[in-house]
Specification:
Length: about 240
């Protein structure tokens, strides 16, 4: 019988935003893997999971999530993490991997699934979708992500501020992920493209230290790495103007 690996999206941090299907997947798995940085501090995924499953069912695996500059070190960490999860799959019929947000949106689970396909052939891999940070920020700020025929563009600012500026110059709503370390460059891009006034940013959504503020408040001070920005589409013509 093949083992099963399921990537479970546990949302952006608020335990109440885990879906019923996600909770069931966590509870039905033999073990639940949570990714941690090499500093071993508790991350959002682990904190959320512990609301629903006992700690003795949780396995912490280092994924070097904070390594951005040394690709060799990052690849070695992924390989080591893959080997650890492969070992668990050889011992258990089902393993869940908890990831913040959604497992198919900029998630470590993607790389893990690729590694497991090589290490444990025949493993059945599936995912349970999760609430994304942009959805949570939209709800908390009142920002509307899309209307009518508007496109929605999602940009990780780790790709560079120029990529964000190109997106802001186009139509539709633009969402920026992981922009905390480049907050000043993001603010400049918003000003240059005339998108600053209606934009909003948020961090630590659903957590005690949550911050949701207008993008006009951005300054040169660094923000949490996992900050999210929404720059709504320019909307004219009244209700249903873009239908």
């Amino acid at each position: 019988m093949s083992s099963r690996l399921v990537g479970v999206g546990v949302g952006p941090g608020d335990p109440e935003l885990v879906t019923v299907k996600g909770v069931n997947a966590l509870r039905e798995a033999d073990v639940v893997v949570v990714p941690v940085m090499d500093t071993m501090e508790r991350g959002r995924a682990e904190a959320t999971v512990l609301h629903y499953v006992p700690g003795d069912k949780v396995v912490r695996v280092v994924f070097a999530l904070n390594e951005r500059s040394d690709r060799g070190r990052r690849e070695a960490a992924w390989d080591a993490a893959g080997e650890r999860v492969a070992e668990l799959l050889r011992q258990h019929a089902s393993v869940a991997f908890a990831t913040i947000g959604d497992p198919n949106v900029y998630s470590t689970f993607t790389y893990l699934a690729q590694t497991i396909a090589e290490l444990v052939p025949g493993t059945v891999v599936s995912t349970v979708p999760g609430i994304t940070a942009m959805q949570d920020l939209a709800a908390r700020s009142g920002a509307v992500l899309t209307e009518g025929t508007e496109p929605l563009t999602l940009v990780p600012v780790t790709a560079g501020a120029a990529v964000l500026k190109d997106a802001l110059a186009g139509p539709g709503t633009v969402v920026a992920y992981k922009f905390g370390r480049q907050a000043h460059e993001v603010a400049e891009a918003l000003r240059e493209t005339g998108r600053l006034a209606d934009a909003v940013w948020g961090s630590a959504l659903g957590l005690p230290e949550e911050s949701v503020r207008p993008a006009a408040d951005l300054d040169e001070a660094p923000l949490p790495y996992l900050s999210t920005l929404i720059a709504p589409a320019r909307r004219e013509g009244g209700r249903g103007g873009k239908l």
